[in-house]
Design goal:
Elements: E1 2-7, H1 13-24, E2 27-30, H2 31-41, H3 43-55, H4 61-72, E3 81-84, H5 90-101, E4 107-114, H6 117-125, E5 127-129, E6 138-140, H7 167-190, E7 194-198, H8 207-221
Parallel strand pairs: 1-3, 1-4, 2-3, 4-7
Antiparallel strand pairs: 5-6
The structure holds adenosine-5'-diphosphate and zinc ion.
């Protein structure tokens, strides 16, 4: 099953995607994680990517499709994948369909998470991440604080704030998100695979609640 996670930065795509990965045994692929790895390991492409990321701008489609496309060829994509952060534009969605159709696959479900912008900003500025590549646990100082101040519960690494989680960059990322969100949501709506979920103060649903409900629903369909 191929699941696409849609939603603004900070809506919980990573957390919910992680729950689905663990409970359903489907690998989660995060375009942002792929890019952050490139920034660390590859001087040439990494530099180019970092230029866009640090400004909160979208990495050009061609590069995104190439790198995520390569990842989709790897052997752990057996039962499908949970795509987090990709596609982000209608063009990327079309390219994804092309990639999947080669293996006679398609997007089976697009989960659209929504959260008011002011809550997004509040959430992201309180987000902390474990920098250990094998761990990568995500925390929130309000909803999911680490047990020991500033340290990862799982591996003990010193938690960091992502460069692009600073308030100014968050605002730009939100603008960028809104500039392509509607076309993308409509694309999946027209394919009859869209599921809308509201989070935050409006519904009082947490990422964990949503994750659990989705797992139950999806287990019944697999
Ligand atoms: P978030 O969802 O919290 O914004 P991500 O880790 O998904 O964070 O993405 C971080 C950055 O990586 C984005 O701001 C953008 O620069 C780049 N990026 C990630 N996915 C894509 C994509 N599908 N297309 C273009 N750029 C992307
Ligand atoms: Zn850790």
């Amino acid at each position: 099953m191929f699941i696409v996670m849609l939603g603004a930065p900070g809506t919980g795509k990573g957390t919910i995607g992680g729950i689905l990965e663990k409970e359903l045994g489907i690998v989660r692929i995060s375009s942002g994680d792929i890019f952050r790895t490139y920034v660390k390991k590859d001087k040439e492409i990494g530099k180019k990517i970092e230029d866009y990321m640090s400004k909160g701008l979208l990495v050009p489609d061609e590069l995104v499709v190439q790198l995520v496309g390569n990842r989709l060829q790897e052997s752990d994509v057996i039962n499908g994948a949970i795509l987090d952060g990709f596609p982000r534009t209608e063009n990327q969605a079309k390219e994804l369909d092309k990639l999947l159709s080669k293996g006679n696959n398609k997007v089976n479900l697009a989960i659209n998470l929504s959260l008011p912008d002011n809550e997004v900003i509040a959430r992201i500025s309180r987000r902390r991440c474990c920098p250990n590549k094998e761990c990568g646990e995500i925390y929130n100082l309000d909803f999911k604080p680490p047990i020991r101040d500033g340290l990862c519960d799982k591996c003990g690494s010193k938690l960091v704030q992502r460069q692009d989680d600073k308030e100014e960059t968050i605002k730009r990322r939100l603008e960028v998100y809104h500039s392509t969100a509607d076309e993308l949501i409509n694309y999946y709506k027209n394919q009859n695979v869209l599921k809308n979920i509201k989070l935050g103060s409006e519904t009082n649903l947490t990422s964990n609640d949503v994750g659990k409900v989705l797992v139950e629903e999806l287990k019944a369909t697999i």
